[in-house]
Specification:
Blueprint (H helix, E strand, L loop, with lengths): L10 E5 L4 H12 L3 E6 L2 H13 L3 E6 L5 H15 L4 E4 L14 H28 L4 E6 L10 H20 L5 E8 L12 H10 L14 H10 L7 H12 L9 E4 L10
Parallel strand pairs: 1-2, 1-4, 2-3, 4-5, 5-6, 6-7
Length: 275
């Protein structure tokens, strides 16, 4: 292990690694020497991230899966342990937002958010603890929450992130006498496809503020190069996924006796978003 590869010999899992924050985290962990298992729903984008990691001298494995399926999460953790003999880092990043009001919201969309943002994270934490204990790892669990959890009126999505904060704090208490640490990361507005389920008017307004004409249908994704441009043009309002990834890398490279409990990563200016 060297200063440039502080995670050499360690195994890391990242859910929601197809794009945005998850992909950036996977690439940074891989660049730091970890064998990274990228889990997500989009094969092509994860293959691109795998290539980036390998070109930097790292090791990456792609797993196409749906975190809403509990059995698939257990299979993901088991496959990583079987392949490498250990699990050192678990990043529960997969997240989903439908910003409709409570009065007008779709219960099936609520179900998807809770299954993705809360239940999958819980199962990931539980499975990771068992795997880390099994190999006597000095483990690191990172849960990606949101600054929405800092506001009481942040809607149904925000309520899922309030749950993440509570889960992280509760699990941290449970593991105080263990060699496993829990870090809760709360990103602010970051230039990702997270807002793909927002209404067209909001997306078009953001595009105009960034000097871009974005005529997208609800659910449509922006290509990475346009997200990079948007982030560059709106640095005061939108953070870069790499900013969050660097915070995660900092947390997981600390000595085991240092517990980095909560990290907020946000651009200089706050932004009210639909909820």
């Amino acid at each position: 292990m060297s200063e440039s590869t502080p995670l050499s010999g360690r195994t890391a899992l990242v859910t929601g690694a197809s794009s945005g924050i998850g992909r950036a985290i996977a690439e940074h962990l891989g660049g730091a020497g970890a064998h990274v298992f990228l889990a997500g729903r989009t094969q092509a984008s994860m293959d691109t991230a795998k290539k980036t990691i390998e070109e930097a001298g790292g090791i990456a494995t792609v797993v196409v899966m749906d975190v809403r399926d509990v059995a698939q999460i257990h299979s993901l953790v088991d496959s990583a342990v079987e392949a490498t003999g250990r699990l050192d880092i678990m990043v529960n990043n997969a997240g989903l937002s439908y910003p409709a009001s409570i009065i007008e919201g779709d219960p099936e969309e609520w179900r998807s958010m809770y299954e993705t943002n809360v239940l999958a994270l819980l199962v990931g934490c539980q499975a990771a603890v068992k795997a880390m204990r099994g190999c006597a790892a000095e483990g690191q669990i990172v849960n990606i929450s949101s600054v929405a959890a800092e506001r009481r009126n942040s809607g149904v999505y925000g309520s899922t992130k309030h749950a993440v904060n509570s889960i992280s704090a509760s699990l941290r208490d449970e593991l105080e006498d263990d060699t496993i640490r829990v870090t809760n990361v709360m990103p602010g507005a970051i230039a990702t496809n997270f807002a793909r389920n927002f209404d067209r008017e909001f997306i078009q307004t953001m595009g105009k503020m960034g000097g871009m004409d974005l005529d997208l249908e609800k659910g449509e994704r922006l290509p990475p190069e346009l997200l990079d441009t948007l982030s560059s043009n709106l640095k005061q309002l939108l953070g870069n996924p790499n900013d969050v990834a660097k915070a995660v890398l900092y947390a997981v490279t600390q000595p085991i006796e240092v517990n980095i409990a909560d990290i907020v990563v946000r651009p200089p200016r706050s932004m009210d978003v639909p909820h």
